[in-house]
């Protein structure tokens, strides 16, 4: 499986943005109803299997004037969904996510200057999985504006990257079960309404 732009470029947006040092930064909270990290991995070269995480939380800090953004995203590892209960349970076990010991997956992006020229930004960050923190780069498309159905501002992103699970100590099933994990994450976050009092 070829390395995807997703984990090279979750998540500069998928799941919490925390902007530092911007005078006009606004806070956005991740909308878990529209934020579902999906992963893909080869299964003994016969097929590409997919799963997703159903619970993601976080906040985004975004300065519309300077176009600076940062992120801090937390994924509930136990919310993994493989489509079958027994398979999901297997993925929560010690051989894979070991959710009893490591209940969350965490991604942080320091302040980043979005480009006004290119559509896709390549954003560096740090991913913590199984207690191991490694640098990753995400390919991110960001769009912010007025929500067409809610009286709120929203920031959304489509994120893509690829990691090697062995870098985080997840070695079970190698090489039959692929080492490269492709991650695709749609992210939406709603602007926090400030109390007028």
From TrEMBL:
Keywords: Signal
This protein's record includes keyword Acetylation: no
Listed InterPro entries: Lipid/polyisoprenoid-bd_YceI, TTHA0802/YceI-like_sf
One Pfam family, short name: YceI
Signal peptide: 1-25
Domain of life from the UniProt record: Bacteria
Protein name, entry field: Lipid/polyisoprenoid-binding YceI-like domain-containing protein
Species of the source: Rugosibacter aromaticivorans
């Amino acid at each position: 499986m070829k390395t995807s732009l997703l984990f090279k470029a979750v998540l500069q947006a998928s799941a919490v943005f925390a902007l530092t040092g911007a005078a006009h930064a606004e806070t956005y909270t991740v909308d878990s109803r529209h934020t579902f990290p999906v992963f893909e991995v080869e299964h003994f070269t016969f097929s590409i299997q997919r799963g997703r995480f159903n619970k993601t939380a976080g906040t985004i800090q975004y300065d519309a004037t300077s176009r600076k953004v940062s992120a801090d995203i937390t994924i509930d590892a136990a919310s993994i969904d493989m489509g079958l209960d027994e398979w999901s349970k297997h993925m929560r076990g010690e051989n894979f996510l070991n959710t009893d010991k490591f209940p969350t997956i965490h991604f942080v992006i320091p302040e980043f200057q979005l480009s006004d020229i290119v559509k896709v930004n390549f954003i560096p960050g740090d991913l913590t999985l199984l207690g191991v923190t490694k640098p990753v780069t995400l390919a991110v498309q960001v769009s912010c504006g007025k929500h067409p159905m809610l009286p709120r501002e929203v920031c959304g992103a489509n994120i893509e990257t690829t990691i090697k699970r062995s870098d985080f100590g997840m070695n079970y099933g190698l090489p039959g079960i692929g080492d490269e994990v492709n991650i695709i994450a749609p992210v939406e976050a709603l602007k926090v309404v400030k109390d007028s009092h």
